[in-house]
């Protein structure tokens, strides 16, 4: 990393404060990144599930890696705050190449998930820890957010999945992850957020859900990072689709 990139990475890492979380309204293009900064947010995050369809691809590593990294580069070039990129599980690239391509974009952080996009199955914890350790060795200053997908692709009771998320989170932290992201999209309970924070022992990222705890409640639970994922992309495209239906029916999309 250059000195400037290292400074951005240090800033991003320092924003992960349990109880005073870094809130990330994830974006998919440079215009959105500029809007996030103009609104006062101190960092920008991307969402693969928003970038992929904006480029004409399905999510789950169907975007050619060169196109995904190019999109991240445009976003990073548009703002002067730290950028962290959702790069799924690295598009089947070796750890050293993941790190090199990511750093070349200007991003100083990344998400790496522990499920295989081809099969939808969880990767063995040791294999994922090895990938994270390889990225860490290749890019010592990079801010790594290790996503844990046991609530998406795991099995067992809710309590068993929480225990497995903790086990994986600890292994990933030991491998070099700065933050652990147990992704829950089916209704995170506040008590579950507290348990994950207390037991994993490093900064914890959660996804903000419309039906879930508020930003204030998540902060009180000790969460250090809150992501909106593709949520804003879906909201905006919902408005676009409604406007298009209005136009198709002969109406005025600008009327209230």
From TrEMBL:
Pfam families: PEP_mutase. The keyword Zinc does not apply. InterPro entries: ICL/PEPM, Pyrv/PenolPyrv_kinase-like_dom, Pyrv_kinase-like_dom_sf. GO terms for molecular function: lyase activity. It comes from the Bacteria. Keywords: Lyase. This is 2-methylisocitrate lyase-like PEP mutase family enzyme. It comes from Pseudonocardia hierapolitana.
């Amino acid at each position: 990393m250059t000195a400037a990139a290292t400074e951005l990475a240090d800033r991003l890492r320092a924003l992960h404060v349990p109880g005073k979380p870094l809130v990330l309204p994830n974006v998919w293009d440079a215009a959105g990144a500029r809007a996030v900064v103009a609104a006062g947010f101190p960092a920008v995050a991307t969402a693969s599930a928003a970038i992929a369809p904006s480029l004409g691809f399905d999510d789950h590593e169907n975007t050619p890696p060169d196109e995904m990294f190019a999109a991240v580069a445009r976003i990073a070039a548009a703002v002067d705050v730290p950028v962290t990129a959702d790069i799924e599980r690295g598009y089947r690239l070796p750890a050293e190449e993941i790190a090199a391509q990511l750093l070349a974009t200007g991003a100083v952080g990344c998400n790496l998930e522990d499920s295989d996009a081809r099969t939808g199955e969880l990767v063995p914890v040791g294999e994922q820890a090895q990938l994270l350790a390889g990225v860490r060795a290749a890019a010592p200053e990079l801010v790594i957010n290790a996503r844990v997908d046991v609530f998406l692709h795991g099995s067992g009771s809710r309590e068993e999945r929480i225990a497995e998320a903790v086990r994986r989170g600890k292994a990933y932290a030991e491998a070099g992850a700065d933050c652990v992201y147990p992704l829950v999209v089916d209704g995170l309970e506040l008590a579950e957020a507290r348990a994950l924070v207390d037991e994993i022992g490093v900064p914890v990222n959660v996804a903000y859900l419309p039906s879930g705890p508020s930003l204030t409640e998540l902060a009180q639970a000790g969460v250090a990072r809150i992501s909106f994922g593709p949520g804003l992309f879906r909201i905006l495209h919902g408005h676009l689709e409604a406007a298009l239906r209005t136009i198709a029916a002969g109406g005025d999309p600008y009327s209230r």
